[in-house]
Amino acid sequence: MATKACPENAFRYNGSLCACNPGRFFLNGSCSLFVTSEKDWSIGSLVDSTPTFFTTVLPLESIRRITQSQAVLLLATLAALLLWLLFCVAVRFGRVDGGQSIWFRIRWWISRLDVSFATNHWLDDCQVVQKRQTELGGAFSVACWILLGGLLSALLYQIITKRSIEVHRVKAANAPDLLAFVNDLEFNITTISSMSCSNLRGLDTLVTGVPGFVDYRVFPLSTYANYHCYNTSKGPTISIRCNNCQVPRRDHFISWHFVDLPNDPATAVGFQFNLTAKDHDDVKHVSYVSGTLKSDSDNKPKTFRGPDLNILKIHLFPQTYIRLHNLKLIQPLFHDFIPGSSIAESGNLRSSLQSPNSGIVNTTLYISYLADYIVEIDKEIINGPVSFLADIGGLYSISLAIFLYLLWQCEGRFKKLRYEDSVMRDIRSRRRAQRNWDKLRKFVMYTWGPSNLDGNNIISKRKGKLGTDKFCGIESLRKSEQPRSKNTNYSDKTVDIHVETSDVPEATGKDRSGLKSSFEGKHAHSENGHRIIDIENEQ
Question: What is the DSSP-derived secondary structure letter of residue 50?
Answer without folding.
Answer: S
